Amino acid sequence: MFDLLSHLDLWTAVARGIPVTLALTTLAMIFGMILGTVVAVMVNSDQPVLKWSGEAFAFIFRAVPLLTLLYFLYYGLPNIGFVRHGPLWDVFFRYSFAIAVLGFSLNNAAYLAEVLRGGIKSVTRGQIEACMAVGMTEGMALRRIVLPIAFRNSVMTIGNELVFTLKATSLASAIAVSDVLSNARAYGKMFSDNISPYIAAAVFYILMVALIDLVFSSIRQRAVM
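Now predict its structure.
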């Protein structure tokens, strides 16, 4: 039953999906962080339109299941005329990897916006008033003081979101992205083995998550020093 686990070809085949998994995770976190920061600032804004728009975005993309979102983007958007025949079809929407990055980025942005909203609220009024006292504008205070403190206070939660994203990338195999899980499934079908390839995939996920935990634990220790 577990004979394939001793075959180097199995581990090599599954490992070929690691660069795709890591690239998808990294891009989704980068774009999700950028968009999530914008949404978090909107939610904390005193302008009702900005605040409600940010809250609506965060609620919608946290409420929609990630697999549903991926299916909509991959199978649904091509049925929309202006998307199918638009300028972005050939350079973006026709590629499953690009669709996966978009879906994960929107999902991440919603969750990271909630994380950073809490981080922004952790900045005391006294710290903000101190910025104003030395002549900073609200924008300067936000960039130089508020957001850096928010990121520092949220570093472990961001790390948890990174781990969630890495594991969730396995859903991308449902839209034909050749990640770790997709390669494991293909190898299993080839040899009619539904156990060994998934054990190999699980081992690689465990190693990647362990590395992330190690890195963020180190960052956390430095942040509190």
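The chain is about 80% helix and 0% strand.
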